[in-house]
Amino acid sequence: MTRSAFLRARRPEHKQQRREAILAAARELARTSGVRNVSLGAVAEAVGLAKSNIVRYFGTREEIYLELLTDEWRQWAEAAAERLRTTAGGTAAAVTALAETLVERPLFCDLLSHAATSLEHNVSVSAARSFKHAVHARVAEMGAVVAGATDLTEREGGELAAAASGLAGMLYPAANPPPALAQVYAEDPELAAACPVLLPTLVRALSALAAGLPTLREE
């Protein structure tokens, strides 16, 4: 849609189209450049709008990406639930399903890595509340599905799912180092050994957590 078409839009459906165009542009820029490298100006340019028009729909850059993170949470929860419902093998298979569906979503992992440090900052109270309610609901849903596929309780299943997302956000930047560190690792095998490989590291950590959770149950 052109800039002039955006400026003429007044009807609710046109406003929704603007929001979707902004989100789509921000998503594509993040996929190609990384979340941390995308500015509000870059999003505005990509959709053909002035920054002052962007903030009519999203108050800040962080609110755009917080909404994208909400959607990525939904997609991961749905994919993980489908995998868990069709996977036999108990806790080990459930852990693998959670980890693999996370690793299959690099944008989700990238967004998770910025959630607490930047995306939850510089946002309105309503945006923060909406995001937290959405995540809380997804974790509860996943807890029930994990419990159905393992010997864990729903609470423990939710804790495992929440930990999976947190660990993915922490490990993703380390497993995908910036150019300078990538060169260091390429030139120094001893240091390269400290660079985690995302999937096996995630599986190992979640396996340990899943094994430990039942031991903390109150009698």
Main features:
219 residues, mainly alpha, Arc Repressor Mutant, subunit A, Tetracycline Repressor, domain 2, 2 domains, globular, disordered N terminus, HTH_TetR, Transcriptional regulator, TetR family, transcription cis-regulatory region binding, Homeodomain-like_sf, TetR_C_34
How many strands? 0
**Which outline best applies?**
globular
Low-confidence stretches: 1-6
The portion of residues forming beta strands comes to under 5%
Number of domains: 2
Name the CATH architecture of the largest domain: Orthogonal Bundle
Q: Which value, in Å, is the CA radius of gyration?
A: 20 Å
Order of helices and strands: HHHHHHHHHHHH
Helix vs. strand class: mainly alpha
* CATH topology (level 3) name of the largest domain: Tetracycline Repressor, domain 2
Average pLDDT across residues? 93
DSSP helix fraction: over 70%
In the CATH hierarchy, what is the superfamily of the largest domain? Tetracycline Repressor, domain 2
CATH class of the largest domain: Mainly Alpha
How far apart are the termini? 61 Å
Q: Summarize the biggest pleated sheet.
A: none
**Helix count, per DSSP?**
12
